[in-house]
Amino acid sequence: MRVTTLGGATHYPRPGNACSGYLVQSGDTTIWVDAGPGTLAELQRHVQLEDVNAIWISHTHADHTSDLLTAYYAYRFGDVEPRPPIPLFAPTALRERLVDFLGGSAETGLDLVFGFADLGASPAGGSAVIGDLTLSWRAVDHDVPGFALRVDGPDGSFAYSGDTAPCAALDELAAGCEALLCEAGAAGHDLGEKAAHHTPEEAGATAARAGAGRLIVTHVALGLSGEEAAVRAQTRFDGPVELARPGTIFVVERTAPVAG
Ligand SMILES: [Zn+2]
């Protein structure tokens, strides 16, 4: 299984760093995970639009979803081979938001392009098989309904926090995974604040509790460099800590993990 970082910028995209988006691939199967601004363009460095077998969205914030708007135009009106609707796993509110934004005939058009599946349909989470890969998700602890993802494939397992404060659902979902991609969107927490993100230390602690083989830090808080975040995460986790730099491809396998 390969995990490609399309971008991991926090709040807004920068030159050379899109917001959150990843490709998870195994064999002929390609899943686009989060569609932050800039990720549709970056995705085309690695695969054709026709190659995407499913899209999975952690929560409705624009830094994880806004490229779905332009993906809609690409798949509906672009030079992409006609194809059946792409399974789109997303929180309930997303479909309505896209319809509102696109307006007009978008409601019918959206259903031609995307096959919506509601991540929140069951409080216990859910799962789906897409080609070589089994996706499983659980609701996590963000300031809007948010979900974390686990992907199991023939070569191993991978987990992604989405945006969330540390929580038991993420620990359980990520348990024993070969690689955990975890956000570190908080530099620290104010006293009494309801947290919506991990600090880097908390990302390390989540990886340790889950027994992850390695930790990949992403979505790093403003004011922190990726390197600082990795060093802080490492204080709470004994395994390898890496950074989700744009374009980095992580090979996820059961033995001898390799970062490319
Ligand atoms: Zn975010």
TrEMBL record:
Molecular-function GO terms, alphabetical: 3'-tRNA processing endoribonuclease activity
Domain Metallo-beta-lactamase, residue spans: 29-219
SUPFAM superfamilies noted in UniProt: Metallo-hydrolase/oxidoreductase
InterPro entries linked: Metallo-B-lactamas, RibonucZ/Hydroxyglut_hydro
Gene3D superfamilies membership: Ribonuclease Z/Hydroxyacylglutathione hydrolase-like (3.60.15.10)
A Pfam family hit: Lactamase_B_2
Protein's name according to its UniProt entry: MBL fold metallo-hydrolase
Organism: Leifsonia poae
